[in-house]
Amino acid sequence: MKEQTMNPTANKDTVLNVSGISKRFGGLQALTDVGITIQRGQVYGLIGPNGAGKTTFFNVITGLYTPDSGTFELAGMPYQPTAVHEVAKAGIARTFQNIRLFAEMTALENVMVGRHVRTHSGLLGAIFRTPGFKAEEAAIAGRAQELLDYVGIGKYADFKARTLSYGDQRRLEIARALATDPQLIALDEPAAGMNATEKVQLRELIDQIRKDNRTILLIEHDVKLVMGLCDRVTVLDYGKQIAEGTPADVQKNEKVIEAYLGTGGH
Ligand SMILES: Nc1ncnc2c1ncn2[C@@H]1O[C@H](COP(=O)(O)OP(=O)(O)OP(=O)(O)O)[C@@H](O)[C@H]1O
């Protein structure tokens, strides 16, 4: 079967194991039988020409779109990508191609929001500001500051998100994603709109996150960045998976060369 030859076998180190994902929009088959397996500590790239289905795939695994078919497993547990917050709870955190921060909140508050996915004090605790709630908030703020330091924007903790540079806003989104303690961090075109220096810094940050034994799924248009960073890559074209493997293998693949060059990158 196709998935068995394209994907390495899932085992105890597998973080994400999805297969048979299909998604149709009206008359358009956006994804056909797509599956990937990501091992713990890997940076896994998803590439393909415009309209290949990358964002649709991301939206399906993170609960924004309901797939027509597919099986989903995160760290060995089946999960149903039926709602974004359920997927976040299950352990996938994501960033967006178009940055989605709370513009009027501070950088610190934005990260604290991410952390609340994992907190215990309920709404009543928040309203009555119980001692348990206050202690938890202090711990969350402390952890949020650590994460801002980690992504390199600790000094901007009290700045409103909208006042940060584009590159720093992307870092802030990553800090917020990390705050959920995810099994998998899904980054949707993190280098989009970045200048060369910001891209180098982003690459260092992603490398650091990997070294800290996190697992990353990356959609990226910058093929050079993908090839330099990723352990494995899947290439989509017209919603189909045309190649899977190491960057070196994928770069040599005839179908990939054809998809990018042969048809003018459609
Ligand atoms: N919500 C939607 N409704 C209808 N069609 C959609 C929707 N989302 C995506 N599509 C279509 O599905 C196909 C795949 O789009 P998708 O955005 O997933 O590709 P992509 O690989 O992420 O492209 P890009 O690199 O341009 O972002 C495209 O033909 C697109 O027009």
From TrEMBL:
Keywords: ATP-binding, Cell membrane, Membrane, Nucleotide-binding, Transport. GO terms for biological process: D-alanine transmembrane transport; L-alanine transport; L-isoleucine import across plasma membrane; L-valine import across plasma membrane. Pfam families: ABC_tran, BCA_ABC_TP_C. GO terms for molecular function: ATP binding; ATP hydrolysis activity; L-isoleucine transmembrane transporter activity; L-phenylalanine transmembrane transporter activity; L-valine transmembrane transporter activity. The keyword rRNA-binding does not apply. Residues 16-263 form the ABC transporter domain. InterPro entries: AAA+_ATPase (IPR003593), ABC_AA/LPS_Transport (IPR051120), ABC_transporter-like_ATP-bd (IPR003439), ABC_transporter-like_CS (IPR017871), BCA_ABC_TP_C (IPR032823), P-loop_NTPase (IPR027417). PROSITE patterns: ABC_TRANSPORTER_1, ABC_TRANSPORTER_2. One of its GO terms (cellular component) is plasma membrane. Coiled coil: none annotated. SMART domains: AAA. PANTHER family: AMINO ACID ABC TRANSPORTER ATP-BINDING PROTEIN, CONSERVED COMPONENT OF ABC TRANSPORTER FOR NATURAL AMINO ACIDS-RELATED. This is ABC transporter ATP-binding protein. It comes from Limnohabitans planktonicus II-D5.
